[in-house]
Description:
- This protein has helices at residues 3-6, 24-29, 37-41, 64-75, 116-123, 134-139, 155-159, 181-195, 211-214, 225-229, 257-260, 298-323; strands spanning 10-16, 50-54, 82-87, 103-106, 113-115, 129-133, 172-174.
- 37% of the residues are buried.
- Strands 2-1-3-6-7 form a five-stranded parallel β-sheet, with helices on both faces. It has a two-stranded antiparallel ribbon with strand order 4-5.
- By secondary structure, it is an alpha/beta fold.
- It starts with a helix and ends in a 23-residue tail after the last helix.
- The chain folds into two domains: 3-214, Rossmann fold; 216-324, Cytochrome-c3 Hydrogenase, Chain A, domain 2, CATH 4.10.480.10.
Amino acid sequence: MTERDRGLDEVHVLWISEGMSCDGDTVSVTAAAQPPIEDVVAGLVPGLPTVHLHNKVLSPTVGGEEFLAPFRAAARGELGPFILVIEGSIPNEKINGEGYWTSFGNDPETGQPLTLNWWIDRLAPRSWAAVAIGTCATNGGIHAMAGNPTGCMGLADYLGWDFTSSGGLPIVNVPGCPVQPDNFMETLTWLLHHAAGSAPPPPLDELLRPQWLFGKTVHEGCDRAGYYEQGDFAGDYNSPKCQVKIGCWGPVVNCNVPKRGWMGGIGGCPNVGGICIGCTMPGFPDKFMPFMDMPPGGSLSSMMVKPYGAFIRRMRGITNRTVNTEPKWRHNREALTSGFDPAWRP
């Protein structure tokens, strides 16, 4: 049996957050609970290989060359197997003039900064799996919006959407601004189970996102969706009703945050009064601005549902009052009036 057939006993996670980003995805993942990242690293999740995490925020090293050592070893082909996690947009270093857009460590021989692109070129082909965490890494995000001077893009735009890792896997995209913590850890855990030989590859959609996480829209899991059906819309951000008219893109955005919550099942943008601005989508942010304006089509859809919704709301109100009334046979009088009449009664 090959090593791939019998599974891996040990995996390194090389996490580079030197893309154009705010490190928000790293911070977000520290709140994960299904499972917590510390449980994965500590070996408390049954069936997983031993995991060595190399992340600048979560690293126990003092930084510098001590922290860079496993990355340099992997670039030389001396460390493996490893999962490469990229956080942040990938800039186009072909248009950087005489400088560079972003870097990660220096070249030991010249002392010059090594660009993120330099690392991706050397690490991605050798990685057992390549994962883009957060919308910046998956599709470019904020830094790739119209008018940016850096030519930023997502990892799949840089490597090619048909890229395959040494483990035979396509890029795995887990979008979010920042990523929902449990979405990422659940995906990473699935990959680790696959690495151990105990699970198939995670199912991905055409945009390389985990299908089970991004197969439904915000609207389908939203606490406020019932108000939309009843044509009952919020006029301001203090209302608990559907927020389509005040800027929510939930009906057309693929995201599970309203259903999953943010931490411990609590939170999620529309659940706590925030509109959905489409931060998990490839067209973010350009196609969703201005964020506080009603989305195109929102006016038509809300107008069409309003007469139907008003009628349904009225009928449900009548039924609600009916079922809020106790049956008349519940009384303390001497006669039984419930309709109970057994056949054997004389």
